[in-house]
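Design job #97: recover the sequence.
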């Protein structure tokens, strides 16, 4: 689904925000912006300072790393409804651990850490809602990563 305007429905379509109240989403909208990227455009590069959370409204973003002697290795292709770069909202010393590149033409939302921190300081209820959702999202990702590591370890063991 292509979104022309960022509104509550657009945020609700993002897994990270799907359980956050409408009132909190209105507040989040006040600190969010959107950008359209053409296929192949770089959103950020590994090693750059992490200063924002991104979420995909339409299209796909490739998360990848450059592997010495091999080239670019895709770690994930994220589609509409996905978010990435969340750690940048919590850790001011975060450096990007991978590249984010538009895999297709895409429409991406962004929340800058400074604006988000100011919002959380003024609205404790919003902070609790968002951080709860954030923890659930990270827990799911950790569980998925553990399953992938177990899968690769098992496959390596029997090759």
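Job complete. Output follows.
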């Amino acid at each position: 689904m292509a979104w022309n305007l960022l509104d509550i429905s657009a945020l609700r379509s993002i897994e990270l925000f799907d359980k956050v109240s409408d009132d909190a989403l209105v507040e989040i909208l006040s600190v969010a912006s959107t950008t359209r990227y053409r296929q192949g455009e770089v959103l950020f590069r590994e090693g750059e300072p992490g200063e924002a959370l991104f979420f995909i409204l339409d299209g796909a973003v490739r998360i990848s790393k450059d592997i010495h002697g091999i080239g670019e290795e895709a770690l994930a292709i994220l589609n509409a409804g996905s978010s990435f770069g969340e750690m940048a909202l919590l850790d001011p010393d975060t450096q990007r651990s991978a590249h984010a590149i538009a895999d297709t033409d895409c429409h991406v939302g962004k929340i800058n850490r400074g604006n988000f921190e100011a919002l959380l300081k003024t609205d404790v209820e919003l902070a609790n809602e968002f951080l709860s959702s954030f923890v659930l999202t990270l827990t799911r990702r950790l569980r998925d990563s553990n399953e992938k590591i177990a899968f690769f370890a098992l496959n390596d063991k029997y090759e």
